[in-house]
UniProtKB/TrEMBL annotation, chain A:
Its main location: membrane. It comes from Herbidospora galbida. The lineage of its organism: Bacteria, Bacillati, Actinomycetota, Actinomycetes, Streptosporangiales. The chain crosses the membrane at residues 12-36, 48-79, 91-111, 118-135, 155-179, 208-229, 249-279. The keyword Transmembrane applies. GO terms for molecular function: transmembrane transporter activity. This is ABC transporter permease. It is a multi-pass membrane protein. It is found in: Cell membrane. Keywords: Cell membrane, Membrane, Transmembrane, Transmembrane helix. GO terms for cellular component: plasma membrane. Pfam families: BPD_transp_2.
UniProtKB/TrEMBL annotation, chain C:
One of its GO terms (cellular component) is plasma membrane. This is Autoinducer 2 import system permease protein LsrD. It is a multi-pass membrane protein. PANTHER family: ABC TRANSPORTER PERMEASE PROTEIN YPHD-RELATED-RELATED, AUTOINDUCER 2 IMPORT SYSTEM PERMEASE PROTEIN LSRD. It comes from Herbidospora galbida. The chain crosses the membrane at residues 31-52, 82-103, 110-130, 150-168, 198-219, 225-244, 251-273, 279-297.
Amino acid sequence: MIALVANPTRAVYAALIATLAIGWALVAFDGGTFTLNDLVGIQQRSAALGIVAVGQTLAILAGSLDLSVAYLISLVSLIAAETMAGQTSNILTAVVVALGVSALVGLVNGVVITKLKVHAFIATLGVALVIRGVLDHLYDGPAGRVPVDFQQLGYARIGPIPVAAILWAAVAVGVWFLLRRTRFGHRVYAVGGDVEVARLSGVRTDRVVIAAHVLCSLCAGVAGLLLASRLGAGAPTVGTDGGYDLESIAAVVLGGTALAGGRGGVAGTVGGVLLLAVLDSVFNQLEVNSFFKDVVRGVVIVVAVAVYARRTGRRAS
Amino acid sequence: MEDINQKRAESAQVILRMTGIGKSFLGIRVLRGIDLSATAGEVHAVVGENGAGKSTLMKILAGVHQPDEGTVEIGGETRSFAHPVEAQRAGVAIIYQEFNLLPERSVADNVFLGREPTRRGLVDRAAMDEATSRLLDELDEHSFGPRALVKDLSVAQQQVVEIVKALSVDARIVVMDEPTAALAEHEVELLYRLIRRLQGRGIAVLYISHRLREVFDLADRVTVLKDGAHVATVPAKDVTTGELVKMMVGRELDAYFPAKAEESAIGEVRLTVRGGGNGKLDGIDLELRAGEIVGVAGLQGSGRSSLVKAIFGAEPFTRGEMTPARPASVRAGVAAGIGLVTEDRKAEGLALNQSVRDNALLVARAIGHRSRTTVSDLLRRVQLAPPRQETEVKYLSGGNQQKVVLAKWLTVSPKVLLFDEPTRGVDVGAKAAIHDLMRELANAGTAILMISSELPELIGMSDRIVVLRDGRVAGQLPAGSSEEAVMALAAADGVAA
Amino acid sequence: MKRAIPIFVVLAGLLVAIAVANPFFLEPAGFLAFLKRVAPLAILAAGQYFVIVSGEFDLSVGSLVTVEVVVAARLIDGDEAMTWPVLILLVVIGLLVGLVNGLVTTKLRVPSFITTLGAMLILSGAVFLWTGGAPRGALSQGFRVFGREGVWAVAILVVVVIAAVLLMRADFGRTLVAAGDNEKAARLSGVRVDRVRVFAFVLSGLSAAVAGILLGGFAGVSAQVGQSLEFQAITAVVLGGVVLGGGRGHVVAAIAGAFTLEALFTLLNLHGISGALEYAVQGVIIIAAVAVGGLRLPSLRLSPSKV
């Protein structure tokens, strides 16, 4: 047990397995069954959050954070759906435009944080407000139409596995690889660990933070595309309704990544997202009130971080 | 040595030449007309009081600051660095007092930070590990490997990592800023060996230190800075310590320490420890009397800081007896009339963004002490000049900051005051003022326990010296004992070894 | 206090601009209406200030405000006799939530961002679990008077401001700032760091309770009453020049930040900028304000303290 807790990534997977087992038992006791289909459903549901959280991991590892992802998701869903306008031939253009806008938002976040030296909390909150203003100004409700071909992204399966889950896995593996094997990844850890040390070692710290934010926003953009394909249209509230801003931060921290940056990784985040999703599924099976789910989620997040804090604290003393 | 000298004669080319360097911050001139040169294989010491401009000069060399005037030539080429990395690429490596390492990353990751080798676009971890191992071998360092996490290494080991980092960039100039400040005495020897190796490779070492003994041990030439100006550059063998100090401060070393306590001035027992121990200490017996200054000597890791923290209640004793009662917390210690002037002023002593006034009153406010002397009286007592109460302490010099720390404790008139390296990083002028204050406090009846790794200070100030070794009291020495006597007691091999 | 000067200049400028656009603003009734509108946010900003200056965050205040209003509506349910008992209960709830936030943050060493994020989820989940998804019941007239009558709101605001200033001058306030600036030094000076931090969270919880009482009267009962108030409060505090991370800034400036934010909304409305774009303008201004404040700092940091 101590060995498990000693490594947050392992701890979150242990918790995940335990939750699955207990959930399975509870559901069975309740007279239901927990099938492979449910597991697949978990994947499907967690894909959007998972993709955002993987991006958020980059921002947090670099010592920053991004509160603008929720509104960005809504914006991207609308841009994509309106550009597609129901035509398959527009898909490519729409994806390019949507991701271009995402990258731009990430660029703004990064530049405001590094060049204007605004605390990430305030900078991304400000950008979130700007996007919100634009959304509220231009849209009253769902808009645009996503062609059936693009809806495959949200609903199709390859064998038993949803395309959305594959997309999530691809994003997660890509970012994992980026962090482990590229110079950029090494520098993200360095900047998040100690920005001054990184700078004195010749790391162009501003660029790293900006790049991390661009990638984070791109992930949010991908999630926005995925949600648009599910809805068949763009919606101005799809991002905030999902609570993707705070929820993605919660998932990252649940996965053992330090909020202060420089410690943690994608593997933990994936575990964190899955843990939240499994909880969700079990509660759905048990038909638990959705407000009760919020309560449990809040408790789980705080307890998990308290457990991690205990072990790092012991090491320090 | 013969070999090194020969090598130097062959390759005595000038690697570094800084000429007429000047720099101002916010209109305040901190450097003017500084010349400094270094040749291959030379150890060139740069000395001067705090505020003399050593660090600024080195930061200009490192590309952290840009000079307002003057030129920097490296290998005969005039260079100007807009960013530290440019200096690094030009062959300048700096090892700062506070290491520039990432605790959560491996040794190899740290060594190659910012210039990770790649193969087909990906970081080549095998190559990093291998290169790091090779350099560690060359330095005879086998106690840790390239994959060890920096947070698991000792201070001396981390310094080796910094040196490996310098070697891995093929540095031609290595700057060491107070490299022995955090090292234990036996580790200093190892550092000397490392520096000799750097010399042997034809690297120019710029060695910044307060400790003149090291300067004479190591340096070929010494450059003295004072108030941002160049005083002299002389071969180390042509000067004496006294002459150097005179150049640095413009006065002789005499009258450095206030007079010792008279026999009759030493009064009642203020503090006793019998068999005190905790995780780091064992069987501590100690007695402190009103009016005396007791010095604590010992190697790094001998438990000196642990001892004062235990008496103070920050890392309490878990065994043994103490009068006043063993404090279980800082607050209990303060309530029992014990104060601690910590070793690291900035990290543990002061709230840097707060005013002089707020810092001076911090202890009194924390324990709700009511009968406060006015702050202006306090500041006069510690000779803070100018005694501006609203200045944020981060703008004060090291010496003035230390006076604020002292003022903080004087508000509650402690019966026992513990000093951990009271004059570290304090310039010579303020040092004397702090020494006078300590003696004044003792004369007024405070019992003082003082840790110092500077033996002249320890011997000059103490009425009695307690020597620690491996968390135990190794022995006591009377006032005026020789440095050799103290060292012999502190370093003697224990029975276990 | 020097850091605080810009916010007062900006605030004065905004107030002048409002007065020019709408002379009614200068009349007692007009200004009173403005103060009434500002009061809840100003009170929340004061509470948030204590937490931020100690080096922490409180993201739970928005949900807490909602909880307070929803609980009040359900328990009072139009019954005047219930007004005072419920008011007392609301204050107790605020204090308790703050206490738990503080204890979890200090004793379990959970970063306050996460603690209060968790509290946010738990609070809003719990209150709607209790009411079955939507607010029920109604507030009494006696309850609504605090938020609706400008005089009451202003009186409460004045009391809060005075109390906050006195607290910050007292030993508590000075040790709180010291703890936010350098926790270790404060601890080694005998400051009960955990205790002052917990107390800061308790004050923040209390401020949310008071703000909730005012907002219930002012805006009525809804599930959205406290929505994103935590961000507004933090924004106000930061606008006032208080540094995230602790140790720097003045409580009056934080409250002035809330006034500035509200004055900004008022001005935007007067100039017919739609409610929607209001957010965009707000976002730009927040970033700009902090950027201007932040850009000054590096030049100070260059002072050769380490030379």
